[in-house]
Amino acid sequence: MKTKKKLLIVDDELGVRESLNLILEEDYDLDFAISGTEAIEKVKNTTFDGILLDIKMPQKDGLETLEEIRQVSPDVKVIIVTGYQSVETATKAVRLGAIDYITKPFESSEVKEKVGKI
Length: 118
What we know:
- By secondary structure, the protein is α/β, with parallel strands linked by helices.
- It has one domain (5-115): 3-Layer(aba) Sandwich (Rossmann fold).
- The protein contains five helices and five strands; from the N terminus they run βαβαβαβαβα.
- It has helices spanning 14-24, 36-45, 62-72, 87-95, 108-115, and strands at 5-10, 28-33, 50-54, 77-82, 98-103.
- Strands 2-1-3-4-5 form a five-stranded parallel sheet, sandwiched between helices.
- Helix 2 packs parallel to helix 3 (62-72).
- The model has no long low-confidence stretch (mean pLDDT 93).
């Protein structure tokens, strides 16, 4: 049996974390963070195959968090999750190394397809 890929889901909204958990728990080993600061601490202490990272969070937003994650774990695959679809934000996220982005509200099929690239 192959080992499940380990994903970190970073979102300050409980509902989003719960939805992503339901969609992905069968196929992935999941961990959660509710802030950019917590995410960075987890990335420093654990190796993840991929990260689903919300853009709009209090204190440290997703783009700042992504920049810091890149310093700690340059090769981890990051997918941005955002309720605020903006070309500028998506472009900046890709420039910072995100492999894709998912807009809220999301469909489970879209999440599975994009996370499948990790």
